[in-house]
């Protein structure tokens, strides 16, 4: 199973395994990271699963959709590495990816 390194808002770093086919949000949630709220459950209708993705993996991610882009515009902490983790399918290609949970807006 591919591995994902998650950095919490407090700076704690933990590497977890994830099931292929889940979203990155589901992998984070299923591994007990409570600070990633994911209020909409992965429907791309909020921005509470906002993460900052390691730039080395940017080319391996699917392109950002218009809805995701619009939702991220509402975040005060958006930057070039921002993505909604519910919009990133977890695949073997993402093995070793590092994400940081964004600050709460």
Structural summary, described in words:
The chain is an alpha+beta fold. The chain has one domain (3-101): Beta-grasp domain (Ubiquitin-like (UB roll), Roll). It has helices spanning 24-30, 66-73, and strands at 3-7, 13-17, 50-53, 82-84, 97-101. It has a five-stranded mixed sheet with strand order 2-1-5-3-4.
How many structural units, i.e. domains?
1
CATH class: Alpha Beta
Decide which structural class fits the backbone.
Answer: alpha+beta
Mean pLDDT: 96
Helicity, in percent?
10-25%
Number of helices: 2
Q: Which terms would index this structure?
A:
105 residues, 5-stranded mixed β-sheet, 2 helices, 14% helix
Question: Could you give the topology of this structure?
Answer:
Elements: E1 3-7, E2 13-17, H1 24-30, E3 50-53, H2 66-73, E4 82-84, E5 97-101
Parallel strand pairs: 1-5
Antiparallel strand pairs: 1-2, 3-4, 3-5
Q: What is the compact description of this entry?
A:
The chain has 105 residues and is of the alpha+beta class. It has helices spanning 24-30, 66-73; strands at residues 3-7, 13-17, 50-53, 82-84, 97-101.
């Amino acid at each position: 199973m591919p591995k994902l390194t998650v950095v919490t808002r407090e700076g704690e770093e933990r590497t977890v395994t994830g099931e292929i086919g889940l979203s990155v949000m589901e992998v984070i949630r299923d591994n007990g990271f409570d600070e990633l709220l994911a209020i909409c459950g992965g429907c791309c209708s909020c921005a509470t699963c906002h993460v900052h993705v390691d730039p080395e993996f940017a080319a391996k991610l699917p392109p950002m959709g218009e809805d995701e882009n619009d939702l991220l515009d509402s975040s005060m902490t958006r930057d070039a590495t921002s993505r909604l983790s519910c919009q990133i399918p977890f695949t073997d290609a993402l093995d070793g990816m590092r994400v940081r949970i964004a600050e709460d807006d």
